[in-house]
Amino acid sequence: MLKIPITVAYNLEVSSPGLDRPLFTAEHYARFVGEEVTLVLRMAVQNRRKWQGVIKAVDGEMITVTVEGKDEVFALSNIQKANLVPHF
């Protein structure tokens, strides 16, 4: 490890995805199985583009979300935006 003293003033900025972390990849969804998520779809499924439920499973390019007690399956390619729902 290189140890060079900093001799000038500087700002250190640290950021995180936040509580409502966006999800992009199958790995992201798999990591958060059991967590609540909001999805905005590119093309409507059952006449709806916005869904909210709990991630149940990820299988390849498909995600299963439990919405109001019923399992719904979505193609990852049809998900325009996905965010975790923070709970306090």
Question: What are the main properties of this structure?
Answer:
SH3 type barrels; 5-stranded antiparallel β-sheet; 88 residues; 45% strand; mainly beta
Descriptive overview:
The protein has a domain at 26-84: Ribosome maturation factor RimP, C-terminal domain (SH3 type barrels), CATH 2.30.30.180. It has 1 helix and 5 strands, in the order H-E-E-E-E-E. It has one helix at 26-31; strands spanning 36-45, 48-59, 62-67, 70-75, 79-84. A 5-stranded antiparallel beta sheet has the order 4-3-2-1-5. The longest helix has 6 residues, at 26-31. It is elongated, with a radius of gyration of 18 Å. The model has no long low-confidence stretch (mean pLDDT 91).
For the termini, the CA-CA separation is 40 Å
The first-level CATH class name of the domain at 26-84: Mainly Beta
For the largest sheet, list the strands in their spatial order: 4-3-2-1-5
Beta-strand content bin:
over 45%
- Alpha-beta classification: mainly beta
Q: What is the count of DSSP helices, taking H or I runs of 4+ residues?
A: 1
CATH-level-2 architecture of the domain at 26-84: Roll
Shape: elongated
Poorly predicted regions are: none
Name given to the CATH homologous superfamily of the domain at 26-84: Ribosome maturation factor RimP, C-terminal domain
Pfam families: DUF150_C
Organism: Escherichia coli
Protein name: Ribosome maturation protein RimP
InterPro entries: Ribosome_maturation_RimP, RimP_C, RimP_C_sf
